[in-house]
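tool_call: predict_structure(chain=1)
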Amino acid sequence: MTSNKRLHIIPALKDNYIWLLGNTQKQVVIIDPGESTPVINYMTTHQLSPIAILLTHHHNDHIDGVIDLQKNYDNLPVFGPDEINLPITKISQQKTLTIGDFTFDIIAVPGHTLGHLAYYINPYLFCGDTLFSAGCGRVFEGTYTQMLNSLNKLKSLPDNTIVCPAHEYTLSNLKFATHLVPNDIDINAYYQKIAHDAITLPTTIEIEKKVNLFFRCDDLKLQTEFKINNELKLFEFFRTQKNNF
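tool_result:
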């Protein structure tokens, strides 16, 4: 049960979010600290004690705060994928990770990077740069097939899953979606709902199934509309269009 868990969101860098998941003892797990100062300030203000850092992938805007956090908090363990070139505990071969009273399912989601991991602890999903609200990450190292398979893994999680991506990209993703499918009722309604929100996250799997085109590549209506009767090819088309939008 995770009813005693509390989610914290910390804006960082240009458009990153650093997530903390806490318990009733004010212990927190830090996810993807791209910088250290806002995390230290937040934890000091709210009297929180870090017990671990989780990393999703090797990009600097997700890991650059690690060394400084370890200097400020003695013996703070760091866990992440094998691709990360830091002295951390590599967990790419594990299925679960238990830290104190937190037990995370480890989900391999290659595509954005080859070793990208996501972490699920019911009902929270920390998905790094694989899944965004109304979007997905660029396919930098993996293949379109890998990325689609990774998204479909996350899509299969329960509808009430609270999705915690690492970037505030929702409005730009919805602008792209409304450009491609201007008459989509769900996408338009969600765009209007969050248009003036400074922070649009977290989202849910239920919402993403409605507003995220990258979750809807198996939709026969969309396949017909774009004359692409193949889930993977439609995903490639959407992602390529987004790259150039």
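agent: The mean pLDDT is 97. Proceeding to next step.
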